[in-house]
Write a structure and sequence with these properties.
This protein has a single domain, classed as Phosphoribosylformylglycinamidine synthase subunit PurS (Mth169, Chain: A). With about 80 residues, the protein is of the alpha+beta class. The longest helix is centred in the first third of the chain and has 12 residues. About 30% of the residues lie in helices and about 30% in strands. The protein has a three-stranded antiparallel sheet, covered by helices on one side. The chain has two helices and three strands. The N and C termini lie close together (about 5 Å).
C-alpha cells in the first residue's frame, strides 16, 4: 500500500521559498503569477492494512510541523 502526504504551510505563514519562486518566474518573463506556495510530498510504502489513523499519527509526530503546516493524506 502506498500513501502520499501533501504538506503545505498554513495560510498566513510567511513562505519565503514561494516568494522566491514567484520572483524568479517574473524575472523569466512569466507574468500573471500572483502567488506561489511551496510544499512537499512524502511518499510512503506501507504494509497492507496500515490504518489511516496510523498515517495521521506519523504526520502529527514527524512528517508535518502542525503548528505552521497542514497536511493531506492520499492513499494510492
Amino acid at each position: 500500500m502506498k500513501a502520499k502526504v501533501h504538506v503545505m504551510l498554513k495560510n498566513g505563514v510567511l513562505d519565503p521559498q514561494g516568494e522566491a519562486v514567484k520572483h524568479a518566474l517574473g524575472s523569466l518573463g512569466f507574468e500573471g503569477v500572483e502567488g506561489v506556495r511551496q510544499g512537499k510530498v512524502i511518499e510512503l510504502d506501507l504494509a497492507d492494512g496500515t490504518s489511516e489513523e496510523t498515517i495521521n499519527e506519523m504526520c502529527e509526530k514527524l512528517l508535518a510541523n502542525t503548528v505552521i503546516e497542514s497536511y493531506r493524506v492520499e492513499l494510492v
